[in-house]
């Protein structure tokens, strides 16, 4: 029977015990990896707060809706054999609605972050259907002519830059801030329509010109029986979204242009609302001035592969230790793992200033150089050091490919893991799992 010292040395040099220790080291290093995830979320939240601060001063995402004519009238209702008049409303949507405009983007900086804002000049034209046909079933004496309003919706009124006028049949309508009473539009401006009996027999033409500041996106509600929207801009990274995509669009080095044509059949509300209101926001559509800033998203995705990197790198060291009889202490495993974790901190901090691509190249090169030099000092073998550098370079290149092709990341990742597992299984055939690791000098 061996002594306690001999048994302890035998256990400590056991291959299985070394694997257990490596597993514990990997699990320990996952704690700082989780802390880095929290740090990424904090930095992303700081950027979001900075973006909101700029938008609050300039103007947020803008949604344009309208115009809508609101006609109040006295509705006759019989109550206990008595005919009582209650105030009711008719809401009339345009027969034709045409919007044309140009979006002028601008980049605003705050600290190390940037936000895209814009100014747009929109011309809105169209007409309403003949009024007599709409009001055919309502006695003309019950219509509150002096209270008829025309409303136009703007989601963030802080973005309005000039006084707005509405032209109805070439008559200038002075507008007031805020929606009119009982209007289905909640934010925007309104004016008196000056509609009377003499205007009921003709289409009611309108024209609105508006200069508007906003940020992020510009959206529209298709209230016309036929809605036609044409937009152009010098911005080269638009993102079209919402209930409708453009019928035609062009994106090149000069910017983009887009054209939508939407019919009333494409939405779930009618042209005339009688004593009720409909929810129109689900039919909104528009364009976002996309700013390709994804360093936080890609850094977060890279951290999710931390356990893979730790496992593969430690497996490499384990094979070097077992197959070449080069003893590596668990503390040295821990130091290498710490270097792998520092990669993500470097990537996060550098990508905020120089972009993700360059930050990734610098961070990966620094970590590969650091670990390679450390390995050389441990095992004093140029051949094994170069092998380690090549394998680490391949791993970081593999991760970079996974981060760039998000749509195929699962496919390439699973195939890559299959290949890596096969290589590990092949190399493990030369390991004598029952023979202790060399106890030579480390």
Summarize the structure.
With 442 residues, the chain is of the alpha+beta class. Helices cover 40% and strands 30% of the residues.
Mind summarizing the main beta sheet? 9 strands, mixed
> Counting H and I runs of at least 4 residues, what is the number of helices?
9
Q: Classify the helix fraction into a percent range.
A: 25-40%
Tally of distinct domains:
2
Structural class of the helix and strand makeup? alpha+beta
* CATH top level assignment of the largest domain: Mainly Beta
Radius of gyration: 34 Å
Gap from first CA to last CA? 28 Å
Please provide the count of β strands: 17
Any idea what the shape is? Answer: elongated
Order of helices and strands: HHEEEEHEEEEEEEEEEEEEHHHHHH
Topology readout:
Elements (H helix, E strand, L loop, with lengths): L3 H9 L2 H44 L3 E18 L2 E11 L3 E15 L2 E16 L2 H4 L14 E6 L10 E4 L2 E4 L1 E2 L10 E5 L11 E12 L1 E4 L5 E8 L4 E5 L5 E5 L2 E9 L8 E3 L10 E5 L5 H9 L2 H18 L6 H25 L1 H24 L2 H23 L4 H19 L15
Parallel strand pairs: 1-11, 3-12
Antiparallel strand pairs: 1-2, 1-5, 2-16, 3-4, 4-10, 5-9, 6-7, 6-10, 8-9, 11-17, 12-15, 13-17, 14-15
Account of the 3D structure:
- The chain is an alpha+beta fold and 442 residues long.
- It folds into two domains: 15-46 and 296-430, no CATH class; 60-292, Sandwich (Immunoglobulin-like).
- Helices cover 40% and strands 30% of the residues.
- The protein contains nine helices and 17 strands.
- It has helices at residues 4-12, 15-58, 131-134, 295-303, 306-323, 330-354, 356-379, 382-404, 409-427, and strands spanning 62-79, 82-92, 96-110, 113-128, 149-154, 165-168, 171-174, 176-177, 188-192, 204-215, 217-220, 226-233, 238-242, 248-252, 255-263, 272-274, 285-289.
- Strands 1, 2, 5, 8, 9, 11, 13, 16 and 17 form a nine-stranded mixed sheet that branches.
- Helix 5 (306-323) packs antiparallel against helix 6.
- The longest helix is centred in the N-terminal third of the chain and has 44 residues, at 15-58.
- It is elongated.
- 33% of the residues are buried.
- Residues 7-12 have low confidence and may be disordered.
């Amino acid at each position: 029977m061996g002594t306690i010292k001999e048994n302890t040395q035998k256990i400590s040099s056991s291959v299985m015990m070394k694997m257990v220790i490596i597993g514990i080291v990997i699990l320990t290093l996952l704690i700082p990896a989780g802390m880095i995830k929290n740090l990424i979320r904090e930095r992303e939240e700081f950027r979001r707060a900075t973006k909101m601060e700029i938008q609050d001063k300039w103007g947020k995402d803008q949604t344009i809706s309208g115009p809508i004519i609101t006609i109040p009238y006295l509705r006759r209702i019989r109550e206990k054999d008595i005919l009582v008049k209650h105030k009711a409303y008719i809401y009339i949507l345009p027969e034709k609605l045409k919007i044309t405009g140009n979006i002028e983007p601008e980049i605003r900086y705050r600290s190390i972050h940037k936000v895209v804002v814009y100014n747009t000049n929109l011309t809105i034209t169209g007409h309403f259907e003949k009024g007599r046909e709409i009001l055919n079933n309502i006695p003309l004496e019950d219509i509150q002519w002096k209270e008829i309003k025309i409303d136009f919706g703007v989601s963030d009124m802080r973005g309005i830059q000039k006084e707005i006028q509405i032209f109805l049949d070439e008559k200038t309508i002075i507008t007031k801030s805020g929606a009119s009473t009982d209007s289905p539009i909640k934010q925007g401006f309104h004016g008196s329509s000056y509609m009377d009996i003499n205007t009921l027999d003709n289409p009611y033409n309108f024209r609105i010109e508006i200069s508007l500041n906003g940020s992020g996106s510009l959206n529209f509600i298709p209230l016309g029986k036929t809605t036609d929207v044409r937009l152009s801009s010098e911005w080269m990274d638009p993102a079209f979204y919402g209930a409708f995509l453009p019928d035609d669009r062009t994106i090149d080095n000069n910017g983009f242009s887009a054209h939508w044509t939407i019919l009333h059949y494409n939405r779930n509300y009618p042209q005339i609302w009688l004593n009720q209101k409909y929810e129109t926001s689900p039919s909104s559509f528009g364009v976002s001035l996309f700013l390709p800033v994804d360093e936080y998203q890609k850094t977060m995705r890279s951290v999710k592969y931390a356990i893979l990197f730790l496992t593969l790198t430690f497996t490499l060291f384990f094979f070097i230790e077992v197959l070449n009889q080069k003893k590596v202490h668990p503390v040295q495993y821990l130091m290498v793992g710490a270097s792998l974790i520092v990669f993500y901190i470097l990537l996060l901090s550098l990508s905020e200033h120089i972009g993700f691509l360059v930050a990734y190249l610098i961070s990966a090169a620094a970590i590969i150089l650091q670990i390679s030099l450390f390995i050389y000092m441990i095992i004093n073998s140029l051949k094994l050091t170069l092998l380690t550098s090549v394998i680490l370079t391949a791993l970081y290149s593999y991760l970079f490919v996974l981060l760039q092709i998000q749509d195929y990341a699962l496919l390439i990742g699973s195939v890559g893991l299959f290949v890596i597992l096969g290589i590990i299984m092949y190399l493990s055939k030369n390991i004598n799992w029952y023979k202790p690791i060399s106890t030579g000098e480390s």
